[in-house]
Amino acid sequence: MSSLSRELVFLILQFLDEEKFKETVHKLEQESGFFFNMKYFEEEVQGGNWEEVERYLSGFTKVDDNRYSMKIFFEIRKQKYLEALDKQDRAKAVEILVKDLKVFSSFNEELFKEITQLLTLDNFRENEQLSKYGDTKSARTIMLVELKKLIEANPLFRDKLQFPSLKTSRLRTLINQSCGAQPNGARAPSPATNPLMATIPKGGGFPPLGAHGPPFQAAPAPVATALAGWMANATPAPHPAVSAGPIGLSAPANPAALLKRPRTPPNAPLGDYQSADSDHILKRARTIGQSGDEVSYTGPNLPQGLYSQDDLPKIVARTLNQGSPVKSMDFHPLQQTILLVGTHVGEIGVWEVGSQERLAHRNFKVWDLGSCSASMQAAVLKDPLVSVNRVVWSPDGSLFGVAYSKHIVHIYSFHVGNDLRQHLEIDAHVGGVNDLAFSHPNKQLCIITCGDDKTIKVWDAVTGARQYTFEGHEAPVYSVCPHYKENIQFIFSTAVDGKIKAWLYDLMGSRVDYDAPGQWCTTMAYSADGTRLFSCGTSKERESFLVEWNESEGAIKRTYQGFCKRSLDIVQFDTTKNRFLAAGDEYLIKFWDMDNTTMLTTVDADGGLASTPRLRFNKEGSLLAVSTSDNGIKILVNADGLRLLRTFDNRTFDAARVPSDTKVSVVTQMASVSTPGPQTVGGSDRVASTVSMAGLNGVDSRSVGDKVRVAEDSVDKNKNWKLTEIIEPAQCRSLRLSDNLPTSKISRLIYTNSGVAILALASNAVHKLWKWQRNDRNASGKATASIPPQLWQPASGILMTNDISDTNPEDAVPCFALSKNDSYVMSASGGKVSLFNMMTFKTMTTFMAPPPPATFLAFHPQDNNIIAIGMEDSTIQIYNVRVDEVKSKLKGHQKRVTGLAFSHVLNVLVSSGADAQ
Predict the structure, then answer these.
(1) What are phi and psi of 393, to 5 degrees?
(2) What is d(CA 188, CA 697) in angstroms, rounded to the nearest whole number?
(3) Closest CA to 30 of 56, 50, 68, 2
(4) What is the four-CA torsion angle of 440, 441, 445, 446, rounded to 10 degrees?
(5) Which range is most confident: 76-85, 246-255, 372-381, 640-649?
(6) Strand, helix or coil at 901?
(7) Whole-number CA gyration radius for the chain
(8) How far apart are CA 55 and CA 27, in angstroms?
(9) Is residue 56 pLDDT above 90, yes or no?
(10) C-alpha to C-alpha distance for 861 and 866, rounded to whole angstroms
(11) What is the C-alpha to C-alpha distance for residues 113 and 149, in angstroms, rounded to an integer?
């Protein structure tokens, strides 16, 4: 459904609710699937209206969509079954068992048997796991707590749990205005004097809503229809830590009633897999020795309850001696411990804060004075002193920009090995260049600058060619803040007269004209998730203001308290974790919770800070760089930041040897009958990847963190790795895998990432999965040579079979890859590429019909929807499964692609080909 249709549905839902059409409201919620009304759901669950509960859920998810959905439906049907047993209604209980619960038997047969056996008991509370079951009301309440957690963690409900903020009777207002009448019958004012009318597209259609209207509603100046699509999206619902592990008999422990946590049947397969949709939101956090999977939300949008002041970096861990007053700082977006610094005397430095080493240093120098404008040459000759106004990294960290106080912008390229090279010199503005930012309009990296000449300019980041010049400010432009919403790219700008303007990339003039608090020097920034807009400014009287904006109204939503009455300089601020704000004032760092205007706490960093210190968080919010009065920088850390910096104190092996050494360690693990080490998805060679590099680069790579622990547990952490060389046959064990399927040559063979199964692709294009079962001889259920795994199939008996079209699979180059959580396998045997669900063996989709056929496959480590496909014709195609589209095509090999591997830490794809390159 189109964006416009979605927004109309929200308008209609609001109207129906205001008019008290309750049944129609909930029917539209369910049929559209746009808004899940948690309050209504709670009421129906508490009332035991199970048919309506499942009907309402069906508009948003089905039983087999993912693990969270499966557990939601299981908990509801289990409760319905227990209530029938509690009423001694055996006939109803049998009906529920056969009709509703039977579907789960294919995933956990032992559990289904245990549930069935409850029918033989006079009181199901005789079962140990249900002995603490209370009355119906308390059981529903406890179950509801678990259901809410599962729904909030389920990616299918993302952005559907919060209704957008709408003005009262919004639909009625828009209809009245489009008809040219006010509610009292008077004629509507003309568009020239009514901002709301100006946002309505011609033809009487409704403007896109979002949270209703553009960020800051339009001034009477001409307004492009596209601007109405700017949306202040509702903050995504928080995803509390919640187990989406194996289904079980009893409800999870709850303070209200201490029900016993279920004992998961040892061979329950359901917990082995996680949905691909949830993969880019939920990261596994497995504890050694713990059964099942404990899933916790990671990333910026953690629920408020999971934060405390301890999450703020407040401990001084490093001190850097820059040597001149710091003006601007920025952490590298990928290598979290690399800090870029610009100073008042025009010098720049790149620091590795972990080792306190300055990696690169440059003083200001015009690279090609002859090509600069006459005004620039005159300014430099008259006064050679130049200050850095802003330094900033590009989104991928391969470039960084420096804005100077005289005309010039320098763009440097920064490469692995700390190689710093001149990339572009731009004579950008007449006078000072006050701010600089990177953006991606039209999928092209651009540089945005603003300056004393009252303009904003956009430059091509590759060639340095000017693409746009925005004019309209009546004073020097102080800052820029590029952003995008609903695929609409725009730029906020602020000037030293306090005016805020917004621009689209269309040279049609400013869409916004508002006053910033203080009406002088103001900077703007979004929260990391892009849903909340803040600004911080200082007036000419040195009064400072930190505010959050309501984008849909163009009004200040809240003003944060705690600044001194007269700041000594212009205050800088930063945001982190979508939860905290920080600003430098009164020789202190001041912190606020975004949802509370009262100052949270202050930190003096052991003293010695600048009067209004410059400050900058790293991407994860674990490090905070702050400037000092003695021309230095202090690095403050929280617990995560301290662990990050310790990687530089305790390096115990050479990173350059990781790929080859780790390959041996995998063999060693197999020889010692332990879990296979981490492996790179792909075709024939399964070699452990960048596990150790995660620590060396200072990045918390949770996608490989679980697997690292397996290796760490086998060695003394205080000693260097000592790898065992496999030289004797006695060090290895052989094992024959049972197979009742038609015999065929095995073309590809890999361990699953969880280490509980082996997946094979046969030359007849059929996949086979062998799984180790948990039992007395193998309590962990992990791979071992002592016990043979069993060939596994779902109850449906279907096989995962590749498309072979008109090709002979025996002649094809077979290839397959597992998603990192083992939810999906992508595979090809000379025909189309197939995507299978590993839990049901169902074919989810097929794509990329030959010729040419695929010869190697790899999942992106952070997004299962992005796939790299190596082809017979030597090209590599980056394919997005969700939108069924090839995003890019890479060329460079001369023969077919034989290998692909994504880095888990860097934004890098490595390939190999039959051309030996």
Answers:
(1) -85, 150
(2) 61
(3) 56
(4) -110
(5) 76-85
(6) strand
(7) 30
(8) 10
(9) yes
(10) 9
(11) 27
Q: What tokens were used for 413?
A: 């390229």
Q: Measured between alpha carbons, how far is 628 from 343 in angstroms, rounded to an integer? A: 12
How many angstroms separate the Cα of 488 from the Cα of each of 5, 332, 441, 870?
A: 18, 26, 9, 33
Task: Report the distance separating Cα 737 and Cα 787, nearest Å.
Answer: 10
Structure tokens given for 231? 């949306």
Residue 748: which of 839, 833, 815, 656 has the closest Cα?
815
How is 411-441 classified by DSSP, letter by letter? EEEEETTTEEEEEEEEE--SS-EEEEEEE-G
- Token pair listed for 587: 């020789």
Evaluate whether 496 touches 435 at the Cβ level (below 8 Å).
no
C-alpha–C-alpha distance, residues 348 and 342, integer Å: 4
In this structure, the dihedral spanned by the alpha carbons of residues 455, 461, 466 and 471, taken in order and rounded to 10 degrees, is -20
878 SS3 class: strand
Average pLDDT value for the chain? 77
DSSP letters, 265-309, are -TT--GGG---SGGGGTEEE-PPTT--S--EEE-SS---GGG--G
The phi and psi torsions of 726 (rounded to 5 degrees) equal -85, 105
The helix (H) or strand (E) run that includes residue 451 is strand 446-451
Angle, to 10 degrees, between the axis of helix 22-32 and the axis of helix 50-58? 50
What angle in degrees, to the nearest 10, is found between the helix axes of 658-671 and 702-713? 60
What are the C-alpha distances in Å from 98 to residues 55, 89, 92, 116?
19, 15, 10, 10
* First vs last C-alpha separation in the chain: 46
pTM of the model: 0.47
For 829-854, what is each residue's pLDDT tens digit?
989 999 998 888 888 888 888 889 99
Query: What DSSP designation does 530 have?
Result: S
The dihedral over CA atoms of 123, 129, 130, 132, expressed in degrees to the nearest 10, equals 120
> What is the spatial distance between Cα 66 and Cα 293, in angstroms, rounded to a whole number?
14
**Tokens 């004019």 correspond to what residue?**
471
Q: What is the dihedral of CA 508, 513, 519, 521, to 10 degrees?
A: -30
Out of 140-149, 375-384, 815-824, pick the least confident.
375-384
CB atoms within 10 A of CB 539: 19
Q: Dihedral (C-alpha) 527, 530, 532, 538: value to the nearest 10 degrees? A: 50
Per DSSP, what are the bridge partners of residue 816? 827
Q: With helix as H, strand as E and coil as C, how does 478-492 read?
A: EEEEEEEECCEEEEE
Residue 766 DSSP label:
B
